Amino acid sequence: MHYEYILIRYGEIALKGKNRKIFTQKLQENVQSKVKDIPSIKVKRQRDRMYILLNGQDPEPIIERCRTIFGIHSLSKAIKVDNEEEQIKKAALFALQEAQGVKTFKVTTKRTDKEFPVRSQQFNQVLGGYLLKNTEGYTVDVHQPDMELRVEIRQDGTYITSQKILAAGGLPVGSSGKTLLLLSGGIDSPVAGYLTMKRGVQVEAVHFHSPPFTSERAKQKVFDLARQLTKYGHSIRIHVVPFTKLQQKVHQVIPHGYSMTVMRRMMMRISEQIASKEGILSLTTGESLGQVASQTMESMHAINEVTNYPVLRPLITMDKEDIIDVSQKIDTYDISIRPYEDCCTVFVPDAPKTMPRKEKVNQFEQAEDFSDLLAETLENVEIVTIDSQAKEEEFDALL
Ligand SMILES: Nc1ncnc2c1ncn2[C@@H]1O[C@H](COP(=O)(O)OP(=O)(O)OP(=O)(O)O)[C@@H](O)[C@H]1O
């Protein structure tokens, strides 16, 4: 006997009422794309759950991959048999003995096929008794069992499932539209991307770099961060913006206390243009209140002035330690702390204004003409696609 299915349970999607179909369709696409290199397996969607038909494939590595798909609450290996007592007993015995580290168990039967002659509660006892009689070293624990053996007797057959393996939760990526993530090489913006994806938003990224002040390795770091994020969704397109000329001009003509604010406003203007061209309806940053100079209320007010797009700031109220915890959990932390310079750190003034006045920023900007440089910068944006299936060497080849 062997497991033929992986059962996928929906998380929050189950609550989404009339829109449920949109969410489950998206989830099915995302699961299919995650396993597309294993053509023999099939992904089947039902109203309240999804199955992966294994067709002889080992379930463990597939479960491991699917755990990072948003919209999945939990996964279990499953065996399907006819609604027939002997077959169910044999399958349950296999499931119990196959599970690792299990000493105590509990049987939970759910009978939706009312033609099956034994009631759920009664069947728990029948099956529990059978398992105890045919094994050694196991006991039943109805309160805190090592394993809850679920038996679902449905019209289309009986499913016996192994332990529940918790997955990423959230909503399927792509079910809540798209955002343009301002992705630096720091700790915060990848976490912002991850949290936005968790709410079902598909992410494209924009990265500003300033060669030769920032190196190819700094750019590689951003590609590596994006690749890490693809684990939770689709491939990610990165719009790489050559920012050197604009930054140099800002540095030359804007009083230093204000150059950081103006630089951020330039980033917003460029990001908005890219989003508009790509049909993306929002921007996302890794800002959180009170961390550094550009992240005060006054600063955000001044920076936000140049865009009408919603700017999502998923980290806005988070403490730095909590942000670091998430970045460690999603394996972006070690990449983020690689010591390569970012365009903002290269040109950062000694004492940026923590409370920039909007009127002053406008006055300084209006005294100069940035339009040609902005247009030139936009013309030279390069798009790099970080594919979720790509191998390490393929990334190196991108550089
Ligand atoms: N070079 C860059 N390219 C793209 N976005 C950037 C860049 N630098 C900064 N940003 C965006 O501006 C936000 C604020 O940047 P800042 O350097 O003030 O903060 P941070 O807390 O160090 O953020 P991070 O850790 O994400 O770099 C970043 O989270 C990111 O969204």
TrEMBL record:
- Pathway stated in the Swiss-Prot or TrEMBL entry: Cofactor biosynthesis; thiamine diphosphate biosynthesis
Location in the cell reads: Cytoplasm
Report the domain of life of the source organism.
Answer: Bacteria
According to UniProt, the reaction catalysed is: [ThiS sulfur-carrier protein]-C-terminal Gly-Gly-AMP + S-sulfanyl-L-cysteinyl-[cysteine desulfurase] + AH2 = [ThiS sulfur-carrier protein]-C-terminal-Gly-aminoethanethioate + L-cysteinyl-[cysteine desulfurase] + A + AMP + 2 H(+); [ThiI sulfur-carrier protein]-S-sulfanyl-L-cysteine + a uridine in tRNA + 2 reduced [2Fe-2S]-[ferredoxin] + ATP + H(+) = [ThiI sulfur-carrier protein]-L-cysteine + a 4-thiouridine in tRNA + 2 oxidized [2Fe-2S]-[ferredoxin] + AMP + diphosphate
Quote any Pfam family the record assigns.
ThiI_fer
Signal peptide interval: none
Checking InterPro entries in the record gives: Rossmann-like_a/b/a_fold, ThiI_AANH, ThiI_fer, ThiI_N, THUMP_dom, THUMP_ThiI, tRNA_STrfase, tRNA_sulfurtransferase_ThiI
Annotated EC: 2.8.1.4
Membrane-crossing ranges are none
- Positions annotated to bind ATP: 182-183, 207-208, 264, 286, 295
Q: Which residues form the THUMP domain?
A: 60-164
Which keywords does this chain's UniProt record carry?
ATP-binding, Cytoplasm, Nucleotide-binding, RNA-binding, Thiamine biosynthesis, Transferase, tRNA-binding
- What SUPFAM superfamilies does the record point to? Adenine nucleotide alpha hydrolases-like, THUMP domain-like
Q: Does the keyword Nucleotide-binding apply?
A: yes
Query: Per its UniProt record, what HAMAP family does this chain match?
Result: ThiI (MF_00021)
Q: Would you identify the family this protein belongs to, as annotated?
A: Belongs to the ThiI family.
What does this gene product do? Catalyzes the ATP-dependent transfer of a sulfur to tRNA to produce 4-thiouridine in position 8 of tRNAs, which functions as a near-UV photosensor. Also catalyzes the transfer of sulfur to the sulfur carrier protein ThiS, forming ThiS-thiocarboxylate. This is a step in the synthesis of thiazole, in the thiamine biosynthesis pathway. The sulfur is donated as persulfide by IscS.
Write down what this protein is called. Answer: Probable tRNA sulfurtransferase
